[in-house]
Amino acid sequence: MIKGSTAIYGIFGNPVSHSKSPLMHNAAFRYFGLDACYVAFDVLPERLDQATQAIRALNMRGVNITVPHKERIMPLLDYLSPEAEAIGAVNTVKNSQGLLYGYNTDAWGFIQSLSERGIYVKGKRILVLGAGGAARAVVYALAKEGAVLFIYNRTAQKAESLALEYGSMGSIISAVSQKDLEDLVSLGGIDMVINTTSLGLKAEDPLPCDIGSLNPNTIVCDLIYKRTPLLQAASEAGCTTTLDGSGMLLWQGVYAFQIWTGLTPPVELMREALR
Predict the structure, then answer these.
(1) Per-residue pLDDT, 63
(2) Residue 187 has pLDDT above 70, yes or no
(3) Which of 227, 239, 267, 270 is deepest in the core (most CB within 10 A)?
(4) What are residue 65's DSSP bridge partners?
(5) Domain span holding position 180
(6) What Å distances lie between residue 46 and 14, 42, 43, 203, 230, CA to CA?
(7) CA–CA dist 264, 47 (Å, integer)
(8) How much of the chain exceeds pLDDT 90, in percent?
(9) Strands (E), 184-255
(10) Residues facing residue 63 across a β-bridge
(11) What are phi and psi for residue 29, nearest 5 degrees?
(12) Is 115 among the domain residues?
């Protein structure tokens, strides 16, 4: 029941109607018997400043941040975690007595989603498609784990900037051109391909890259949390391991719930809610 005392949590995005975060967080609130509710808010980019102020004004306890606000919200917050500062993107905000704290749980969530599938990335050659907010979290996480990274983005300068920024973490990181991308895929020198772009949200979207000649042992991952054309094409090309973004969605949400409530989340219940 929604009461006058109900604590409000939510997610800011645009678009956001497809979000499954309300399902898993409300399931966790019910599990603990918390007087709380999680709602999706479609926030236009030009209204983000007002929406962020509304967190304080309405005493919302916490929000998740998704596309296209992860980078834009940072200067509107009072404090940033070391991970959020390093990644340059925020996906979780906690309101503590009117002060807004920004976190990034995507990086940890992504690595956790791989490890539960028995996938470990140290020394692996990984192609990352995209250089936006989601890519920043993925590249940061993979660099910390010691992967060898290749970044491709349609705007080459963004890929080059990302490679330069995280190259100081000790991993080998390179930006690749369209020609380099084709060679990497066709020569079979890649252990994993990760799509961090929005290509695949719509059925009519083109593939983010041609993967017809991938080695069957190449792992293909798409951060979109459904079976995208990329994952379907990978399976048809003989790739035996594919995974969508539902694992990352789950684990970043688990960490966000813990930040907000201090409770150990019911992981399997949240997973079942997503299913």
Answers:
(1) 98
(2) no
(3) 270
(4) 12
(5) 120-240
(6) 11, 12, 8, 28, 32
(7) 34
(8) 72
(9) 192-195, 219-222, 242-243
(10) 10, 93
(11) -60, -45
(12) no
Q: Where residue 60 sits, what CATH number does that domain have?
A: 3.40.50.10860
- Give residue 21's pLDDT: 95
What is the residue whose two structure tokens read 């009461």? Answer: 3
AA letter at 253: G
- Tell me if residue 268 falls in helix, strand or coil: helix
Which tokens sit at 79?
């404090």
> What amino acid positions are annotated as catalytic residues?
70
pTM of the shown model = 0.89
The one-letter code for the residue type at 187 is L
Q: What is the pLDDT of residue 133?
A: 80
Query: Looking at residues 106-112, what average pLDDT do you find?
Result: 95
Asked if 7 and 61 count as a contact pair (C-beta separation under 8 A), the reply is yes
Tokens representing residue 154 in the block: 């349609």
Give the residue from 9, 4, 35 showing the smallest Cα distance to 22.
9
Contacts for 69 with CB less than 8 Å, ≥ 6 apart = 12, 13, 14, 43, 45, 48
CA distances 131 to 62, 186, 264, Å, are 27, 22, 32
Task: Output the pLDDT for position 105.
Answer: 96
For the CA atoms of the chain, what is the radius of gyration?
19
DSSP string, 215-234: -TT-EEEESSSS--HHHHHH
The alpha carbon dihedral of 218, 224, 228, 229 has a sign of negative
Q: Do 12 and 96 fall within a single domain?
A: yes
Give 63-84 pLDDT, tens digit per residue.
999 988 999 999 999 999 999 9
Whether 129 and 234 map to the same domain: the answer is: yes
